[in-house]
Amino acid sequence: MMFLNGLLAFGALAFTIPLAIHLLYRSKFKTIQWGAMHLLEPVVRINRRRIQWMHLLLLLLRCLLPILLAFCLSLPLLTGCRALPGDTPQTIVMIIDDSLSMAARDDTGVSNVDRIKNELGDYLAKMSRRDEIIWMPASEVHSVASTVGHETMGRDDARDRLRRLTASAGPFDLAKLVRAGIAAADNGSHLERQVLIVSDFQSCNVNDASLEGLKTLMQASPSDLERPAIHFLNVGGMLNAQSNLSVDSIETMSPALVPDRRTSFTARIRNASDKAANDARVTWSIDGINAESGLVSVAARSTSTIKHTTALSTSGIHEIAVTVEHPDALLEDNRRSVAVEVIREIDVLLVDGQPGKEPLEGETDFLAIALSPFAFAQQDQIDAVRASVITPSELLKRISEQPPNILVLANVATLSDEQQIKIADFVYSGGSLILFDGANLSDAGYAKSWNRGNGVMPLPAELDAVVGNTDKDGETPMRIGSLNSQYTPWSRLAPGDPRPLSGVDVFAYRKLNPRTTSNEDRDRGDADSTTDSDSIVLLSMSNGDPLVVSAQRGRGRVVQFAIPADDSWTSLPLRRTYVPMMQQLALDLIGSGRATTVITGEPMIVSLDEFRQDDDETTEPASSESKNKRTDSKAEKSAAEVAENSDREPPIFTVQPPHSGETTIPLPPEWSEEDAAELVWAQTRQAGVYRFRQILPQADGERVVTSTVRVAEVPPEESQLRDTEPERIAAAAEMIGATVHTDLDSIVTSEQNRRYGREIWRWFLFALLLAMILEMVVQQQIVHKNQGSIA
C-alpha cells in the first residue's frame, strides 16, 4: 500500500491526544469517604467490570478517529506489493470478433457489432496518443505466425478501422486467439501490455477443444510474470431468445455436373428459435437469376429441406443460391450460395484386356453400359460419360493424341515400358486410372512394379493370391462388407444402409495389401512423388479384406479393384447398384479436384486452365465496343501459350470480392512455363461470390476477358445463436488469469486499478463515520447506565 499524500498520514499520531487526556484525568480523581457509601458497594462491585470495558471501548474509538481521518486524507492506494506503471505508454492488442453472429440484432434493432463500434470508439478516444494499438480482427488470426509483424497504429487509425468493421466471418478458436494475442503483445514496443478480446462468445467458439487448448497454453507457459493483462469483453447474453431462420447448406447428389443433364439440389433450412416458422418463402437462383420459389415451414429447434431440380446448359462454374424471406435477428444468414462446376462430357477410355466375340463377353462390356446407359439404349438423354473401348495395342496412340479424363485397364495382361511411362505421366499430370483385376494380372509385370522412366509409380495395393474359386463351381459365394462412410459418392447408393452390396455374390477376389507411401518410395520418384498419399480402402469384403483401394499419385488418382469388371468372379455387374456405383466413381474422379466453395478464411485456388475460352458463355467483353465480339482462335490460348509469344503483353488477372472493387492479382511465378499454374487468393474474410477475371490483350488492341467464380460461406454453426454459459466463460478466463467484463466501464476501472492502484480512502471515510457514530452511542450508554445506577 502507498499514499498519495504521505505527510498527512503522520496525522495518525494524534491518537495520543485522547489517550493522554484519559490517563491525565484518571490520575487526578479523589476518594471521599462518607457514611452511606456502604449502601452502594454491592452495585459498584457488580457493575465495575462492565464500566471498565465501556470506558476502554470509548477510549479506543476516540483514539481510532484521528487515525482514520489521517488515512483518509492521505489517499491510500492498494498496489499488491508491486511497482505501478502509472501513465507510462502501453501496447494494447485489440482482437475483435467479426464473426457472423456479431451482426445479430436485439429487440431494438441494434446489432452487437454496431454497439461495439459506439462504445469502443469512445474507449479509444480516451486513450493516450503515446499508446500503441495492434488491431487484429478474429478472422485474420489463423496462427501465431500470422501475428508476427502485424501492423501497429495509433488511436485515430484504430477508430478508422473500427468504423469499417463488418461482421461476416466464421467462428474462431478461443485458444488460438489468446495465443496469438499474447504473441502479438510480446512483439509490441512497450513494456506495459494488454490484450482485449471483444466477442459475443458463442457456444461454437468456447467448446471443449478451446478449453483444452487454453489448458495446454498455460501448461506450456505457467509463469504469469511476463504475461500481459488479458480482458474478455462479453457482449453476448441476449441472443438465446432471438428468432433466426437460416440456410445451413446446399447439396447435390452428384459430385460433378454435365451440361443439359438434370440435377437435384437440396437446401437445408434451420430454425434456431423456440418458435415455429410457418410458410417462409424460399427462392432458388442460378447465376443471380431467380429460378423457382416455394414455401417452407420449420418447427422450433429443427431443420427442414427443400429441393430444386434443374439442368445447367453451359459448362463452367455456376453460382447456386437459396434465399429465405423471414424477419429475424440475423438477416445475413438468410441467403447461402455454393459454386458448382459443370464439366463437359467425361471421356473414359476402356482398355479391354480380353475382348469377347459375343455381346457381354468382353472384359469391359458391362462397364461400358454402366457408364453410358443412354447411349447404349439409343435414347435422347445425355450421358455424363462417353465411354470408348480399345485394345491394348491401340493404347499408346490414343493416349498420346487424345488423352481421356479417365483411363480404365480391365484385365490387361502386359504393358510395354513405353506404355507404362506414358500412363504414369498421364496420372501424375492429373489424369485418373482405374485398374480392374482378372486372371491375366497374376503374371502382369506392371502390376508388381510400374515403370515410370526415372522411377516407379506404386499402385495403391500390392497384389497377392486369388481367394476363392474363379470357376464358380460348387463354391459358396462370399459377401461384400461395408462401404467406407467417408467416401461420399458411394455412401449415397442406399442412404441409411451401410451394406448396400451385401447381396452380391463374390466367388473369387484377389488379396490386396494396401500400400503405405514411405519416404523411400518418394525418393525413387521425382518431385511429383511428394504428393503421393497413403492408400484408402473404399470397399471391403465381409471378412475385412480390401475390395477397392484408392490413392493419390501426383495430381491424379489411381483406383484399384480386386475383382474384374465383368461377371466372371462376381454378380456385381448384374446388380442395379452397379450403374450408379460406376458413374459416381467416374464423376468423383473428375469433379473432386477443384474446391469451388470454401469456408471464409480459407484460400481460394483458381487454375489458369479455367480461363480457356472454349465456350462463348465464359467470355466477358472488356469494353462496350467489344461486347458482341466473338473470341478468335488466338484468344482461345491459355495464359502460358500467350506468354510464349513475345509480341503480346502478358495477361492480367483480377479478383472482385463481395461488396468491393476489383483488385489486380500478381502473376503466378510459373505461369509462363505450364498451364497448371494457379492463382491463390487468401483474403476471403467476406462471405459471398468472388469473381476472377483474366484480361488477354490482343494484337489489334482489343482485350478479351474470361472469368470464373468462387464462393466463400460461413459455417452454419454461426447461425445457431447460442451464447456460452457465463460459468464456462469464467472457467476459461480463470485458466489464463484473465478478467471477464460485460461493459467497457468495468475494463476502464480494472485498468485504472492495475496501473494506478486501487483507491481505498472511501473505505477509511466510511470507517471514520462509523467510528464517530459508535463513539456517540457508547458515550450515551455510559451516561444512561450511570444515571440508572444512581437512581
Automatic annotation (TrEMBL):
The chain crosses the membrane at residues 6-25, 56-78. It comes from the Bacteria. Residues 472-496, 512-533, 610-661 are annotated as: Disordered. Residues 518-527, 626-650 have a biased composition (Basic and acidic residues). The keyword 4Fe-4S does not apply. Residues 1-74 form the Aerotolerance regulator N-terminal domain. InterPro entries: Aerotolerance_reg_N (IPR024163), Class_I_gatase-like (IPR029062), Double_TM_dom (IPR011933), Ig-like_fold (IPR013783). Gene3D superfamilies: 3.40.50.880, Immunoglobulins. It holds the Pfam family BatA. This is Membrane protein containing DUF1550. The keyword Lipid biosynthesis does not apply. NCBIfam families: two_anch. Keywords: Membrane, Transmembrane, Transmembrane helix.
